[in-house]
Amino acid sequence: MSCALVPFGRFQDLEAARDFLCPHRRQGSAAAGRESGKPTNWEDGGWGAWDEAELPEPEEEESTSKNQRNYWLQDCVLSLSPTNDLMVIANEQKAVFLVSKWKQSDKGKEEMQYAVGWSGCLSVEEGECVSSVLCIPLASQKRSSTGRPDWTCIVVGFTSGYVRFYTESGVLLLAQLLNEDPVLQLKCRTYEIPRHPGVTEQNEELSILYPAAIVTIDGFSLFQSLRACRNQVARAAASGNENVQPPPLAYKKWGLQDVDTIVDHASVGIMTLSPFDQMKTASNIGGYNAAIKNSPPAMSQYVTVGSNPFTGFFFALEVCTSWLTLEPATPLAVRFGIPDSRRHGEKICLSPCNTLAAVTDDFGRVILLDVTRGLAIRMWKGYRDAEVGWIQTVEDLHERETEKIDYSPFGNAQCPSRVAQFLVIYAPRRGILEVWSTQQGPRVGAFNVGKHCRLLYPGYKIMGLNNVTSQGWQPQTYQICLVDPVSGSVKTVHVPFHFALSDKKSERAKDMHLVKKLNALLKAKTSDLDLIEAEAKELILDIKYPATKKQLQSVSGHMFKLRCRYFFSSSELECVDEGLLQFCANKLKLLHLYEIVSKLNSQSIQEDTTPSDNDLAKLLRLEEKDFHRLQTLLEKYKKENAQTAVQFADEDDVLSVKMFLEYLECEKDAINVKNMEDNECVTLGSFFFWKCLCGESSTEEMCHALESAGFSPQILLSLLLNLWLSREKDILEKPDSTSCLHTMLSLLSKMKVAIDESWDTQSVSPWWQQMRTACIQSENNAAALLSAYVGHSVTAQIIDSVTEKKFSQIVVGSDTESWEALSLDAEYWKLLLKQLEDCLILQTLLHSKVSKKTMRVSSLQSEPLGRLSVKKLLEGGKGGIADTVAKWVFKQGFNPLVLNLAQHRNNTDNTEESEEMPTNIFLEEPEIDEDLETILELLQLAYQQFPCSLEVDVLHAHCCWEYVVQWNKDPEEACFLIRSIDHLRCIINAHVQHGIALMMWNTFIVKRLSSATYLMDKVGKAPKDRLCRRDVGMSDTAMTAFLGCCSDLLQTLLEADVSSDEMQAPVLDTEDAWMSVEGPVSIVELALEQKRIHYPLVEHQFVLCTVLYAIMRFSLKSVKPLSLFDSKGKNAFFKDLTSIQLLPSGDMDPNVLSIRQQFLLKVVSAAVQMLCSQKAKEASEEELFPFEKARNWPTLAVDLAQYLQISEDVVKMHYVCELYSYGMDHLGEEAFLQVSDKEVLASQLLILAGQRLAFALLQIQTKEGMELFARLPPTLCTWLKAMDPQELQNVQVPIATTAKLVNRVIEHLPENHGQYSLALNLIEAVEAISS
To answer: Which of 294, 635, 758, 971 has the most CB atoms less than 10 A away?
Structure first.
């Protein structure tokens, strides 16, 4: 292994982030500057702006602007979370938060992509800019956590001195001003388990650098405060309350003295001096008489870079912590430093073990510091503007091998893992990334990466862990990464541990280099194999490390070029790994087989005459009638499958040598197939057998070659069946391929160990069981059916030969002609043939489609159906077949009565009689007759194959359940629930209908209905769309349809309960071929197990549903549905419909009766109003009542009145009055006859007639009308003046129609009635007006 630059993520749209953060670097900004003749900014003009004579050419200018756009990341502040899940890019006041998501790349592979999760402006104070950013993942407190952080906090430092903390979504958690100077740098330290007992355990902390101060915040305090802030923000967002003040942070502030400038720092952590160092320091400060403490003091060490000194070392004794108030800093003088007056430090990066640090300066140097001793121990030159980071690699104990010569402790696998550190340097001026072994090691890796990248090294992991909680954690964190804005990729560096080894341990590194060289040599394209063998021989003999010798077997797929045993001498063979010799020998064997198969495939044989239908029928042992039936089924399947199958280009049957060697492996004399994907098995099988199946290659020679090579017949049978079952389309186009398969299967069956010699006809052969299993699992039903016929034929052929041998031993003269060879395998084949034929017919039905040119198709209906196999049907339970057809019915969306029509045709022998049923009523859209006829034929065929599983009631039950399940997924699709009720009503057996309806109610309806009821009762009217979506999960239109369906469902349930007493429960049978089905219980079986309902309770619930539907249907206001019922009635709602509840009985409260009467009258008025608007617009009832089917609301209101203890006559009279009020007198006359108390109604209609006459005489105020009004009797005049025509809904009624109304009133008013004389005067007035 060598150093590698491994990509682990990509950016979805980095240009959008660039345009947001750096708008002046947009692609169009440079062009705009050129068009205007001068740069938009003095900085954009470049150095050439100072000298017009040196203006670049247009091409150079374009490339320059492009480079400037690529350098935009250098101006930004970046931070990537160590867990790779969040990246922050900030520039000036703006920031972009990028979150990681796993998505498919263009090549179809899953990869991590960074997409913009939040973007915006972070600045609060005027003029402040972002100066530093950290992404700190916080550990989860849950015991079930697997090492992923709970969430990630973004810490941002500003030039105003503020430090603000944000969530991943940009929500501000905490903002604190710790110092009034600008924040220069933020750094974090998280908990690490000490590697050795003597190492001091370091606490977590966040350090903030200012120009003359350092502030450190305790990690535990920060972790608790951030959690509390996040919880408070979440509560505030949920409740709208004000945010509660979080607990204060514990921090320390040190004022750094005796330093000119500071630009970066590193917090080394707590260190304890050794006793010698303690005495040396004390004597230097206090002289030889200085006193020392018994225990060395603990100090926090800080290293700064800047100028005067170039590097400063500070040691701070523990002091009291402060809380978040702007307090003065504690003075801290520099202890010592590295003085270099001309050198200015730029960055410092502390190593993971806190012993080394890399410092960059303005001279282009990278200096390695020994932090413990305060010495510069190494320097690299020529790295101007460099960025540095560290990689710590742990030795893998499993790779450590004990060598024969070395018996040192480090060679023992029992020792703990060793740790190596590597320094990574990115030189942007040269566009190179280098990896160096520390402290004095060589360069171990270098990569050309471009000049626009950024190297990110966080130096911390997950905050919130300690010595207890970190034991079980395995956090997936990265150490270093490279961001490339040009390619949009994020990469990390992988360095193997052995690069840190030196002296004799470097043999492994040398061996790895030889392995790489050997790999490149073997991949080289050259025809001189002798030269390759000579060089490879030298390389192999030079490899010494035992583990590397073993690795040679997996170096390359091209190792077969080496004929190891032939070009190594006997003495040299001892130095070569035996496994390598065997490996090459096996590859040569496979190569020889490849050459033989390729040669056979290239030799085309003379094609025989295509077998006739009679020949195929005899070959498959079928009668002529059965063979023609098989052909018909295959043609139908082929026709319907062609409409749905996706067409792919023909696969190339040529298999490359490399893939051939990867697919196979040798074990002694046998050849085995490796674990492969299905498509790889098909490719290998195609290489062996496809030419033979097409009749273009010799089947006998191919089988002989494969058997001689060491293939077992079971492996060959598996490859053959995989090929046959996957190439169904090609097989159906080549009828002669069936006879080729017969020949191939016969030859394979005759191989040794194919069929056990002990097999007899009364036992099951594993050979044939393997073939049957493949057919059962296959989803290509036509190919499976043909292969099953071939398998059955070959089995019968072998049984006949075995039987003949037995019969030859029987005494001559016995009657053997009437004997029939029976076999258990033959019976299994017959059963499988019946199952495959059924599955083929069912699959053909599922492939058929109805044209939907105008019908709107839901996304749920457009999802493709899965393909069938015998295995799926056997595991689908007794209702699996009906459930499959129900899914197909749902996808097609046709009327339920189409299923009844197909059943009717199936049961009727007389075709003319069946044609009497009209077909156009069964389809909602004008569909192509051919499609309908095809579907009806296929349905009839399916009914014949499955008389029990597809019995019409069973099918309707499954269709009903499928529609309601799909409606539950998307409640906006109200048509699904309506269609479910339609299928429910088509169920003939009341027991099944009762059970399905009750299951629908309990599973899908009652919970939503309860939510809708309480919502409508709360708002006191038909709720708006927003409330419906919030509480019920659907729109107001969908909820209207839902309530109507609830009413229909309960009505159907009531009717089924009554009808179930008059019929027997059905007996559920299963076809003989499908008796062995296993799986979930059928929906129909569950329906028959349901308890009987309590009829009064369902009727009570039905009334509520009807009330709710009326409120939504007519948008009624000031109606609380639950106010129509007393406490008993309210408590009985939404209870189990099979339970007995306490229902209202006896006289009702007059107040409740009054509310009920007002509600019913509102419903009648709204229904009449809608009826009149329908007449006015001349619209059909279906357009205005899309969820109703001839629902008569006035009649329904009368029925409700009977249940609600309201006089029916009151509702009927109000209906009549409303009709006359709207001027619909012809309907009013019909409704008049239904009223019992016609005298009261007549007196009410008299007022209506007076209002009409008052409008005609007083409102219009014509001269003739006023003269006529003056001639009327005074009593009538006074009465007419008291009338208010505005109460009428329609005043434009002919006077002749009003005359008929007055005559109808006179007929039903007795002469002794108080208004009889007034009615007579009214007749005279009307007649006078009409004359």
So the answer is: 971
Q: How far apart are CA 589 and CA 1170, in angstroms?
A: 88
Q: What is the DSSP letter of 620?
A: T
Backbone angles phi and psi of 803, in degrees to 5: -65, -40
pLDDT attached to residue 609: 67
Which DSSP state fits 96? E
d(CA 58, CA 62): 6
| 1053 vs 562, more confident | 1053
CA-closest candidate to residue 84, choices 490, 496, 455, 425 = 490
Beta-carbon count within 10 A of 805 CB: 8
Residues 6+ apart with CB under 8 A from 1080: 876, 877, 879
| SS3 category, 146 | coil
Pairing of the two strands 4-11 and 110-121: parallel
Report d(CA 526, CA 520) in Å as an integer.
12
580 pLDDT more than 60: yes
Of the ranges 898-907, 1058-1067, 1215-1224, 1254-1263, which one carries the lowest mean pLDDT score? Answer: 1254-1263
Q: Does residue 986 have a pLDDT over 50?
A: yes
Say how far residue 549 (Cα) sits from the centre of its chain.
46
Token pair belonging to 922: 């069964």
Residue 707 pLDDT greater than 80, yes or no: yes
Pure H helices in 971-1035: 974-986, 990-1000, 1006-1019, 1025-1031
Lowest mean pLDDT among 74-83, 247-256, 518-527: 518-527
Q: Which of 1249, 1260, 1275, 1274 is nearest to 1327 (CA)?
A: 1249
Instruction: Tell me what pLDDT residue 880 has.
Output: 93
Q: Which of 112, 84, 114 is nearest to 96 (CA)?
A: 114
- Give CA–CA dist 768/764, Å, rounded: 8
Model pLDDT, residue 998:
96
Question: In this predicted structure, what is the pLDDT of residue 239?
Answer: 73
Q: Which residues contact 403 (CB under 8 A, 6 or more apart)?
A: 411, 546
Instruction: For residues 583 and 558, give the distance between their C-alpha atoms in angstroms, rounded to a whole number.
Output: 11
Angle at 254 between CA 251 and CA 260, to 5 degrees: 145
Residue 55 has pLDDT above 60, yes or no: no
Peptide bond into 104 cis (omega under 30): no
Length of the chain: 1331
Residues 6+ apart with CB under 8 A from 654: 687
Q: Is the per-residue pLDDT at 508 higher than 70?
A: no
Question: Which pLDDT does position 552 carry in this prediction?
Answer: 65
What Å distances lie between residue 940 and 151, 879, 892, 1063, CA to CA?
60, 19, 17, 27
Q: Distance between CA 687 and CA 694 in Å, rounded?
A: 12
Answer whether 123's CB lies under 8 Å from 135's CB.
no
Taking the CB of residue 1003, how many other CB atoms lie within 10 A of it? 13
Looking only at the bridges linking them, the beta strands covering 151-158 and 419-427 are unpaired
Decide: helix, strand or coil at residue 903: helix
DSSP, res 779: S
Kindly report the average pLDDT of the chain as a whole number. 82
pLDDT of residue 1027: 93
Half-sphere exposure of 504 (CA within 13 A, CB side): 9
pLDDT tens column, 306-342: 998 999 999 998 766 666 556 788 999 998 899 888 9
- Give the CA distances from residue 519 to residues 516, 531, 556, 660, 977, in Å, rounded to whole numbers and listed in that order: 5, 15, 6, 19, 66
Helix residue spans in 1255-1292 (DSSP H): 1263-1271, 1274-1282
CA 723 to chain centre: 32
User: How many angstroms separate the Cα of 229 from the Cα of each of 152, 174, 244, 558, 725?
Assistant: 13, 7, 8, 61, 62
